[in-house]
Write a structure and sequence with these properties.
This protein has two domains: 1-32; 36-135, 2-Layer Sandwich (Beta-Lactamase), CATH 3.30.450.20. Helices cover 40% and strands 26% of the residues. The chain contains five helices and five strands, in the order H-E-E-H-H-H-H-E-E-E. Strand 1 and strand 2 form a beta hairpin. The longest helix is centred in the N-terminal third of the chain and has 31 residues, at 2-32. It is globular and about 40 Å long. The N and C termini lie far apart (49 Å). Pfam families: PAS_3.
Length: 136
């Protein structure tokens, strides 16, 4: 039993460089596209926003996580945007249009956001949901 755990631990450690490289590649790709990208954990808490999101909204990941993202949404659109956690909780894809304030001039612009779940193929995470991504 101890040997089996040790073998698994060694295998897990050997996969870490591949995981780090995959994460680096994802960030490079997400920061290189002309779209805003956010990801959230299965609880709906944001865990990543790309550089385009930060530049457009003027919000850092920490500010976004703290709920400041709501200040970038047009007040008339908040009610429909507030329904996105339902999509995360249900693990369903969604599509929503709303106005987002551009930090550079304060103007609101319409955006179409699409969200999709990434399922845990090993079924180790709660509800089989690994992460949820959204882009606009």
């Amino acid at each position: 039993m101890r040997k089996q755990r040790s073998d698994r631990s060694a295998k897990d450690r050997s996969l870490m460089p591949d995981l780090r490289e995959g994460e680096r590649h994802f960030r490079w790709l997400a920061d290189g596209i002309p779209h805003m990208v956010l990801t959230a954990n299965p609880d709906g808490c944001f865990d990543y926003c790309n550089q385009r999101w930060a530049s457009y909204t003027g919000l850092s990941l920490e500010q976004t996580q703290a709920g400041a993202w709501r200040t970038a949404i047009h007040p008339e659109d908040l009610e429909k945007v507030d329904r996105w956690p339902e999509a995360v909780a249900s693990g369903c894809e969604y599509e929503i249009e709303y106005r987002l304030r551009r930090a550079s001039d304060g103007a609101y612009r319409w955006h179409l956001e699409r969200g999709a779940p990434l399922r845990d193929r090993f079924k180790k995470s709660p509800g089989g949901l690994l992460t949820f991504s959204a882009s606009c």
